[in-house]
Amino acid sequence: MLIVDDDEHALSSLAELVSREGFSVATAASLEEARKRMAERWPDVVLLDLLLPDGNGMELFEDVKARAATEVILITGHASIESSIDALRLGAADYLIKPVNVRQLRAILSRVARPADLKSEIGLLRDELRSLGRFGRLLGRSAAMQRVYDQIARVAPTAATVLITGESGTGKELVAQTLHDLSRRRKQPFLPVNCGAISPQLIESEMFGHEKGSFTGALREHKGYFERAAGGTVLLDEISEMPIELQVKLLRVLESGTFMRVGSGREVEVDVRIIAASNRDPDQAVAEGKLREDLLYRLRVFPLELPPLRERGDDVVLLANHFLEEINRAESTNKTFAPATLERFCAYDWPGNVRELKNVVHRAYIMADDVIEPRCVPPELGRTSQTTGPYFQVRVGSKVADVERRLILATLEQCGGTKEKAATMLGISLKTLYNRLREYQAQSEPSAPNAQPSQPPADPVANEAH
Ligand SMILES: Nc1ncnc2c1ncn2[C@@H]1O[C@H](COP(=O)(O)OP(=O)(O)OP(=O)(O)O)[C@@H](O)[C@H]1O
Ligand SMILES: [Mg+2]
Fold first, then answer.
1. CA–CA distance, 217 with 228 (Å, rounded to integer)
2. d(C-alpha 277, C-alpha 173), whole Å
3. Angstrom distance (rounded) from CA 197 to CA 225
4. Does the predicted model carry a pTM greater than 0.70?
5. Pair 72, 91: CB distance under 8 Å
6. 233 has which bridge partners?
7. Are 349 and 177 in contact (CB under 8 A)?
8. Around 179, how many Cα atoms within 13 Å sit in the side-chain half-sphere?
9. Which residues approach ligand 1 with their CB closer than 6 A?
């Protein structure tokens, strides 16, 4: 382990602590010295002070390769927590707040071990994704989900606080669990807490615990979520439902790494990673005064937005078949979907997203004999609503053909490239859609082999796209 700190006293006491934990230790008091030490022997772990006389500590890890080969743990004063948050974004694994105590250090060191394992596991998941269309427990191979997997792979092994947003049923809890499973904390508990489901009178003691006799009914000492999840991850679900007074306390926990039980003046250290989730727009919750802006800022170190199911293209079919297989396996049956049923699934909006799909599959399974026909699914699946979603403006006097082209291409994009669904939404046959797409393709290709090496024909309407 390399310890980089310009405070001589801190440096020697840390070196002693760490070597007692069984690490071989090198020390450096500046960037320059650190570079020398790293050239002599590449460290597995670096304990890093950010404020060094000749620059910012993270400069040592600007190189992506350097970052991948080493675990960086920041040592930071209270005053420089802001820059630590930036460093977590850059890939630091965790941070310790000065003055560092033995317990805190031990907890982090025990978790830091073997990042190579995690990295190879993430690599493995990527392969699985390519062959099976799944990432751990998450199913889906659409472009929108691949972006989500990339973000998960990047942020999971770090200590960064993640804010997951997305409509109801898009898989926020499943993503939080996946983040936990791919972190060093995976052997410790993962505790989801629904902030909207606990009564406001109890929520503080549920979170932080209470001492015996601290209020009427507190018959014995009680450990809160933060203590029960020690070393693990707490998911604060529906974060904007948390009472405002408690948000202040949570903010203090995030800033100081400590909290107090109800009825106690003693500070307890927290060693949990916090993940927050919300199915509402958090900025709007701030505007409505339901969520504190400073808390949102702290939680949104790494924002992760889950796409609604209607933007995941063919994932609908993949998921539907997966849920059906699950039931078939449990019931020892072999029911299948009629193609027309899957078409309906593809054309529907899914306001309740994956959860709604799962429920619909279950109901359809019960209603069907061997083949699940369209009549086994609820009638609203035959209708699509066109009142939500993106739109574009049309200048009066535009050519109808140009507007049609834009509408068709935009709708197709909105459906994640699923032509059946786009055709249903547009109210045209699949054949017409294919014909149009073929025309557009032909228009954008040069008409004669020896024509000028020209630009594709200018599209007078598309250029105004918003
Ligand atoms: N990508 C996915 N692959 C497989 N199953 C999924 C996926 N996404 C969600 N699910 C399943 O769908 C259901 C809903 O997911 P989850 O509870 O994580 O959603 P949520 O976003 O937390 O919803 P809410 O906002 O209502 O709390 C769960 O049964 C979950 O296992
Ligand atoms: Mg949820």
1. 21
2. 8
3. 14
4. no
5. yes
6. 190, 273
7. no
8. 33
9. 138-140, 166, 168-174, 279, 354-355, 358
- CA–centroid distance, 116 to ligand 1, in Å, is 29
C-alpha distances in Å from residue 375, one per residue of 60, 99, 180, 279, 365 = 63, 67, 41, 32, 12
What does the DSSP assignment read for 96-118?
EESSP-HHHHHHHHHHHS-HHHH
Compute, in angstroms, the gap from residue 192 CA to the centroid of ligand 2: 9
**What percent of the chain has a predicted confidence (pLDDT) above 90?**
35
Long-range contact pairs involving 207-213 (C-beta distance under 8 Å, separation at least 24): 207/246, 207/249, 207/250, 208/249, 208/259, 208/260, 208/261, 208/262, 209/261, 209/262, 210/261, 210/262, 210/263, 210/264, 211/261, 211/262, 211/263, 211/264, 213/263
- Which residue from 206, 246, 204, 244 is spatially nearest to 224, judged by alpha carbons? 206
| DSSP strand pairing (94-97 vs 55-56) | unpaired
Cα(180) to centroid(ligand 2), Å: 15
pLDDT in tens, 345-357: 998 999 999 999 9
Instruction: Give the whole-angstrom CA distance, residue 240 versus residue 233.
Output: 19
- Which residue's entry shows tokens 């070597």? 19
Distance 169 CA to ligand 1 centre (A): 5
Residues in the chain: 466
Q: How far apart are CA 309 and CA 345, in angstroms?
A: 11
Both tokens of 170, joined, read 């898009």
pLDDT digits (tens, 9 = 90+) for 378-410: 887 876 555 456 777 788 888 888 899 999 998
In a mutational test of the pocket of ligand 1, which residue from 327, 354, 358, 362 has the highest number of ligand atoms less than 8 Å from its CB? 354
Q: Indicate the residue type of 109.
A: L
